[in-house]
Amino acid sequence: MNLAKRISNNHVLANCIGLVYLWFGVLKYFPEFSPAEDLATNTIDLLTFSLIPSQVSIVLLAVSETLIGVLLIMNIYRRQVVILALIHMFFTFTPIFLFPDQVFTCLPFCFTLLGQYIIKNIVIVGALITLYKSEAKGQI
Asked: Residues 113, 114, 120, 122: is their CA dihedral positive or negative?
C-alpha cells in the first residue's frame, strides 16, 4: 500500500473515532441525554472511592471525551491522544466486572443494551491500536 493510501486510511480512521468520542462526549454535557450516564458516574464513583462528586465526574468525562474527539479530528498530538483514548477505553470495560447485573441479562453471553454499548468499544480499541502502530512507524 502506498504512503498516500495509508495516510488517507489513518485520517479516516482517526476522524471516525474522533466523531464517536465527540458525539458521546457532548451528550454527557446534557443531563440524561447519554444512555451510559448513570453507569459512568457509578463506575467513576466506585473507582475513585467517592472522592469525586457525580456532577463533577460526568463533566470531567464529557470534557475528556470531547477533547479526545476534537484532537483526533484536528490531527493534533495524535499519538498522545491515542494513548489517552486507549487508557479511557480500558476504564470503559470496568463496569463488566463492577456492575455485571447492569451489563448482562444472562452471564456471560447475553448483554443488556448498556453491555452492548460497552462491548462495541472492542472495535474502537482495535482501531486505536492500528492508529498507534501507524503513528509509531511514522505513517501519519
From this structure: negative
Q: What cell was used for 39?
A: 453507569
- And the C-alpha cell for 128? 486505536
pTM of the model: 0.90
The helix, strand and coil proportions of the chain, stated in percent and rounded to the nearest 5, come to 75, 5, 25
Give the position of cell 466506585: 46
pLDDT in tens, 57-96: 999 999 999 999 999 999 999 999 999 999 999 999 999 9
- Yes or no: say if 137 and 6 are a contact pair by the CB < 8 Å rule: no
Q: Residue type for 1, please?
A: M
Burial of 40 (0-12, 13-18, 19+ CB in 10 A): buried
Indicate the burial class of 13 (C-beta count within 10 angstroms; 0-12, 13-18, 19 or more).
middle
Please state, in angstroms and rounded to a whole number, the distance separating the CA atoms of residues 35 and 17: 19
Retrieve residue 24's grid coordinates. 458521546
Element (H, E) at 3: helix 3-27
